[in-house]
Hints:
The chain is mainly α. It has helices at about 5-15, 65-75, 90-95, 100-105, 120-130; strands at about 30, 35-40. It contains 5 helices and 2 strands. The chain has a two-stranded antiparallel ribbon. The relative contact order is 0.10.
Amino acid sequence: MHAPSVQAHVSVHCVAGKKPQPNRMKMLTETSRGRRRLYRPGDDCHPGRLSGASFPDREALPPACRELLDWYHQDYLASASGAAGDPEYSLREADMAWPVAAADPILALEGSGREIWANEDADAYVSRLREGWE
């Protein structure tokens, strides 16, 4: 069993999509009830947490843990546009630049097949489908 403070942080205080109570950190994302993963820019985020930290300050970490933060930046966030290889690129900027589609493959489908419906009014289509229904 986890210490109560760890449980509170994992359940509420660090979860990006939850209302800040009072902490604004966004270090975890709730993927389903009771499941969390590390936050990525572009994940759902409560408006009150938008300016919150998504990773700890490197200097505040014990030296033995800094390798984990390096992994987070270099591997986990590698597909955040601009983050890889640009020392001037701020990972805070990556929070705003992360493509939502990269975080959610379903959202990546947005717009696919739009040419099929380009000349079709949605209401007219539904009415046509419902012709003959009783």
